[in-house]
Amino acid sequence: MFAIVRTGGKQYRVAAGDKIAVEKIDGEAGDTVSLGDILLAGDGGEVKSADGLVVSAEIIAQTRGEKVIVFKKRRRHNYRRRNGHRQSLTLLRILAVGEAKKATPKKEAAPKAEAAPATEAKAAAPAKEAPAKAAPAKEAAPKKAAAPKAEAAEKAAPAKKPAAKKAAPKKDA
Fold first, then answer.
1. Which spans does this entry mark as compositional bias, Basic and acidic residues (predicted)?
2. Distance CA 120, CA 122 (A)
3. Is there a domain that residue 107 lies in?
4. Does residue 132 fall inside a structural domain?
């Protein structure tokens, strides 16, 4: 079975076992990603519905493409600019083209079970941090006593505005 997938603004025809280079996708080598934006799917010469299909792929490596030289020149003006560019790429190995329901629960079930204890720990941690955040708010109140200095600075700011207005008539002249 093959599918036409859109990722990074480009379209790729993929089948199980293919290796492709796409624009950078977050993840490390060995991670599994799913490409959900499927435009067309088929089996042999038949075109099938792409609804509910997901392409699962494994990241082989994060790499960069070949260097492209950008050279700008304007004749008779002694203007030359030379720049190089290397696009960040992700090498993918397509594992399967299939339905999302079959592929996703197996992959998500294990991380959720592991993430649940960490989530509980994170939920407990903000409760401890909340009183600590309240204390700096109380410290902010004494800073308001220093507000007259800030007001003096604000009064000095309008003095600069008339100077800017004086510059405007020079443009008309």
1. 100-111
2. 5
3. yes
4. no
In a domain, 157, yes or no: no
- Write the DSSP symbol of residue 36: -
Amino acid, res. 162: P
pLDDT score at 120: 52
Domain tally, the chain:
1
The three-class DSSP label of residue 155 is: helix
- Measured CA to CA, the distance from residue 171 to residue 143 in angstroms comes to 43
Summarize pLDDT for 100-144 with one digit per residue, the tens: 654 333 444 444 444 455 445 445 455 544 454 444 444 544 555
Q: What is the pLDDT of residues 82-93, one digit of tens each?
A: 999 999 999 999
Residue 124 dihedral angles phi and psi, to the nearest 5°: -75, -35
Instruction: Give a yes or no: residue 149 inside a domain.
Output: no
